[in-house]
Amino acid sequence: MSPTVLQRLSGILVSYFGVEEHEVTPDATFASLDLDSLAIVEFAMVAEKEFGVVLGEDEVSPRARIGDAVAVLTAKGAAGND
Amino acid sequence: MNATARVLPFPGPGGTAAVLTGLGAWVPPRVLSNAEIASRLDTSDEWIRARTGIHQRHIVDPGMSTSDLAVEAGQRALKSADTDRVDALVLATTTPDRPCPATAPDVAYRMGLERCAAYDVNAVCTGFLYGLASGAGLIAAGVAEQVLVIGADTFSTILDPDCRNTAAIFGDGAGAVVLRAGSAHEPGALGPFDLGSDGRDADLIMVPSGGSRQRSTVTPAPAGSEYFTMAGKAVFRKAIFQMAGSAQAVLRKAGIGLHDVDRFVIHQANVRIINGVADMLGVPVGRFVRNIDRFGNTAAASVPLALTSATESGELRAGQRVLLGAFGGGLTWGSTVLRWPDIEAM
Asked: Best interface-test mutation with A: which of B201, B233, B235 has the largest number of A CBs within 10 A?
């Protein structure tokens, strides 16, 4: 079974942002995972490479929840078995 | 990173290249296992291995200091280069024997290198890269013909004994190289370099007290503020992005690509950080030298210690193109490239 968008997003946060896998839940905000606005820019860069989807500056912020990011990515056509 | 960055010739017009001719390393004999850490802190061997890739580290015994490690590594590098004379000694360290004076003159004296120029460089875990650039600069400027660059740290002496995160990560050690004046076309010629810093994030990696900022307040330092602290997640992320960015910057300056690099020898911060840099660059992680399992993060010593391990194991061989990179407190970062010379590590 292919990984879900949430699993792929979690993989990015664990591999590049030092986040523990169990911390990545739909309700967690990026800020609660220690991602500030600069980290969000870097996150968007990696996500673009991973999903082939461009995230606008107004679409993901430190206050956004992981679930919100999954919804935006999915709406933009990110592939996953959600 | 600016895509239109100017490509600078290296060394500059009329400059002399610094050629690596000797390599050595030394770690104190005492091994500190994960199990020993787990016996006094809330952690486990499995937890440490999974999150850092570290199985053990070496630490100093009471009474041993950074200069002791530096002397051992320096002597091995001189032997490897088959020389007993240098014009300058650059010691990269964040854990000097004393806040004043620098540790390098004492190291030089004890090695019998009397009267040579000697000074410390503090760029935390990037210290060895800054030291190499400093040594290459002394040679290019005609100040020295031969330079000993040592990276040595004893982070076990500044760690909070109750902090499981830093206690598990750091180890003590020293590594050293000899540089001599030569031609940019020789194997072992260093350069170009990419060096940088970002002081906005100075607080991410620090020892809060003991410096002029705290001491000028004339109030006693808060309990525990003499220990090393590190903001884990932010440092993790910045280490990956900055080391990947610096590697790309130095390759642009050198006019070569990632596929031209046979071995990447970067700061052994955490095996997940090394893997992250490899992923970010799109390079198989098998081309990255890793010895963090045996030594942990040895700060300024980690790059020359990894070079020594890889030369001894045959992973690093004469003729290979090697990229050296590091990231550390400051924040600081740096990279350089060289064609690996035919040398025997000691």
From this structure: B233
